[in-house]
Structure to design on (555 residues):
């Protein structure tokens, strides 16, 4: 697993992808920081994170699009699958590499916290909860992207489908809100509310650390990783 | 060593591999022959555990590939048709990565890699990016990858496709060297490719095994007498008739002139008779000159023809 993790991390920075992702994220975060925090004199990290969430879902596919699809296209999956590695360690290695790039990017934004704390009052707990929430949400989205990337050999297709799924998740809350007026669909609203990723994230960005939220996000990512492993396993048996 | 027992792989209604069984013995170099699309790669992918068989079992020393994948995969090195290379890595980084995933001990790693560099002759390119290497070098890196960890069995899927003649000779030499320490399975669609290096061949056609034997047994009788090119100085029609009248000759075709004043003919004889001596005598006695007599290579097609002819003859 460590070998896959190392190789994948290396490949992010051998190609432009790692830099593109970090660059995009930091530019956007910088803009929102300048306008949302500096110019409007706010010391809340929560504002920053909820502002950049939407932009973040646009760039997650950059991080995940080639994870599995490129292996399939260049047939290097033959090396991985015929090696003694288990499918789980392949999938986890790749997942963790993408999460590591994301974490690294997120740590770069620490400078904003330093700036904020030297000019205003910043609650350490709030900052920590916000970072934890944003990181966990990012991992969930990466797991979604990894799964979508397993479904196609084409990077563009996997990027677009990842974006589609994430966008749906993002809009889920507004869909629920607009359906809630219809009493017949109340059960559906309730059910959708259970699976809504971004509703859980809202808790974190208002500084509430809830164990259910953490467990929810870990299991959300776990389910997508499980589906990834199963898709790979199923492909070996495929008779199509 | 490896037993393939009644293995079938279905893709929809098509049987890519249809109920094949054969054994690969320890220490042998086995040639796996078949036309393109005959099921060679599918079979190799099943042996290495890349895909699973629809039916049947594949055992390596009694262990099922599907039940004990780790143990089996650790003992097999595989070079697929397209070498599985990461283009963004250097040769050295790539092979170190392969050492990692194949669980080669850290201690012995450096010596092992140095041996491999020397064996496949890639020492001079070890610091170059794989994407910048020529096809021949890429193939060699692929071969090195299959040999990482000194696996008992090395499976090579068409290792010489797309290489130039000089590279083919080098790779072939390498493979016959491998036979000393490893069990080697080598697939190809060209007969004379495996002729020099293999102890035994298995021939597959449309997903079924049509023959498995030593090559000399299979080509026995197809030998050098079966088809040849003859260059004769003389008028076309009488020469054709003359060649036709030689006992044992089944077919003569004029190929036109390749050298001044002479004509080339393709002569086919039945598998049992060597027609060369009577044919040459006949040409000379008739007062024509013989400039060349060149046996043509036995091809896979010839073996197929012979096998199907035998089948028909048997019934």
């Amino acid at each position: 697993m460590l070998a896959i993790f190392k190789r994948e991390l290396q490949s992010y920075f051998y190609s432009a992808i790692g830099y593109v992702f970090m660059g995009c994220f930091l530019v956007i975060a910088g803009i929102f920081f300048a306008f949302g925090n500096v110019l409007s004199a706010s010391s809340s990290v929560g504002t920053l994170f909820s502002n950049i969430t939407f932009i973040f879902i646009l760039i997650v596919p950059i991080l995940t699009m080639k994870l599995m699809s490129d292996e399939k296209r260049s047939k290097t999956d033959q090396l991985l699958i015929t090696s003694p590695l288990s499918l789980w360690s392949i999938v986890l290695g790749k997942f963790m590499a993408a999460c590591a790039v994301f974490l690294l990017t997120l740590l770069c934004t620490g400078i904003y916290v330093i700036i904020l704390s030297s000019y205003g009052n910043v609650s350490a707990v709030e900052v920590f909860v916000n970072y934890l929430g944003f990181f966990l949400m990012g991992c969930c989205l990466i797991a979604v992207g990894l799964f979508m990337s397993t479904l196609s050999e084409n990077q563009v297709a996997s990027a677009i489908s990842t974006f589609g799924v994430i966008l749906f998740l993002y809009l889920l809350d507004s869909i629920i809100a607009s359906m809630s007026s219809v009493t017949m669909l109340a059960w559906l609203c309730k059910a959708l509310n259970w699976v809504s990723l971004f509703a859980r994230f809202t808790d974190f960005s208002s500084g509430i650390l809830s164990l259910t939220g953490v467990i929810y996000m870990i299991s959300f990512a776990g389910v997508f990783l499980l589906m990834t492993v199963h898709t790979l396993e199923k492909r070996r048996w495929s008779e199509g | 060593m490896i037993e393939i027992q009644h293995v079938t792989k279905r893709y929809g209604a098509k049987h890519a591999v249809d109920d094949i069984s054969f054994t690969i013995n320890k220490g042998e170099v086995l040639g796996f022959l078949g036309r393109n699309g005959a099921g060679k790669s599918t079979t190799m992918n099943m042996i290495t555990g890349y895909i699973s068989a629809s039916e049947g079992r594949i055992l390596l020393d009694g262990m099922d590939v599907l039940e004990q994948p780790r143990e089996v995969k650790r003992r097999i090195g595989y070079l697929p048709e397209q070498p599985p290379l990461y283009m963004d890595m250097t040769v050295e980084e790539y092979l170190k990565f392969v050492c990692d995933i194949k669980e080669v001990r850290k201690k012995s790693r450096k010596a092992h890699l140095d041996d491999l560099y020397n064996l496949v002759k890639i020492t001079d390119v070890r610091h170059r990016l794989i994407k910048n290497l020529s096809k021949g070098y890429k193939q060699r890196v692929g071969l090195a990858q299959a040999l990482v960890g000194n696996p008992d069995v090395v499976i090579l899927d068409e290792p010489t496709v797309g290489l130039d003649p000089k590279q083919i000779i080098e790779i072939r030499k390498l493979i016959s060297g491998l036979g000393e320490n490893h069990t080697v399975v080598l697939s190809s669609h060209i007969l004379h490719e495996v002729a020099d290096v293999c102890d035994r061949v298995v021939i597959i056609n449309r997903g079924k095994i049509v023959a498995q034997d030593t090559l000399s047994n299979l080509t026995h009788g197809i030998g050098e007498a079966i088809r040849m090119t003859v260059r004769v100085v003389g008028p076309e029609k009488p020469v054709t008739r003359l060649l036709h009248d030689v006992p044992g000759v089944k077919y003569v075709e004029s190929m036109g002139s390749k050298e001044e004043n002479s004509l080339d003919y393709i002569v086919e004889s039945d598998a049992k008779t060597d027609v060369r001596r009577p044919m040459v005598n006949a040409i000379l006695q008739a007062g024509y000159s013989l400039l060349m007599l060149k046996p043509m290579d036995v091809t896979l097609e010839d073996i197929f023809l012979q096998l199907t002819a035998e089948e028909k003859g048997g019934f």
